[in-house]
Write a structure and sequence with these properties.
It is a single chain. The chain has 72 residues and is of the alpha+beta class. The protein has a single domain, classed as Winged helix-like DNA-binding domain superfamily/Winged helix DNA-binding domain (Arc Repressor Mutant, subunit A, Orthogonal Bundle), CATH 1.10.10.10. The chain is 46% helix and 15% strand. It has helices at 9-20, 25-32, 36-48; strands spanning 23-24, 52-56, 59-62. Strand 2 (52-56) and strand 3 (59-62) form a beta hairpin. This is MarR family transcriptional regulator.
């Protein structure tokens, strides 16, 4: 899993959108202004680290938001 300090601005926006529901890379790219390839790379990184998963071809959902992991 990624840690909060591993996240960049694009990851933060992606996580915000994933917290609202499932997303596709083209939708995120259109809403954020990031390039489609960059969004795909960032989504792939979130999947690789277990924070998101691909539920269908091109459709992603959140598993764990690393920003919510708080050390008490």
């Amino acid at each position: 899993m990624l840690e909060k300090e591993d996240l960049g601005p694009a990851d933060e926006k992606l996580l915000d959108m994933l917290n609202e529901g499932r997303v596709t890379a083209p939708y995120v790219a259109e809403e954020t202004g990031y390039s489609l390839q960059y969004v795909r790379d960032r989504l792939g990184r979130l999947v690789e680290h277990g924070n998101a998963r691909k539920v269908y071809e091109g459709l992603y959902e959140l598993i764990d938001d690393p920003r919510k992991d708080v050390d008490s």
